[in-house]
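Researcher: Next entry in the queue.
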Amino acid sequence: MGALEYSEWIKAPPEDVWRAYIDPSRLPEWQTGSPVIADIQGSGDHPGSSYTSTRAPGTARTTVLSADPPHRILTRTVAYFGLKFDVDSRLQPERDGTLLRLRAETHWPRGLGLAGRLVERALLSGSEARKELANLKALIEREAGEPPVHPLR
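Model: Structure for this entry, 153 residues:
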């Protein structure tokens, strides 16, 4: 099991960040790897909502475990090779915008050893997560008509 944490400040209110972030149909607009989203069940903002995402190396199913719009959403993804990962996303108002904090925790089936760790690093690499959050930030701020802002952290 491994855990990684990421955050991004976005110049938009939590409600605007929430709408773009939890909408599975918008994932290809900001996630890397050109995901193809299918089989969307529910609105994405309540427990039981789910969708399937396909990209190399396979297909994954993400389900909302809990949600407190527009403050927090917890999802579980069951992916290829038996990987499961939980993402706890929290949105908090901060400095005329929203701080989006993510904590991703992976769970591997026993016996994958080094191979599992290599796949985990590829799937949850910090550089990819930072690219995706930067893409999400740019998307939301562009839609809000805001010039790019890079506050000190």
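Model: The helical segments are 14-22, 27-30, 113-123, 126-144.
Researcher: Noted, moving on.
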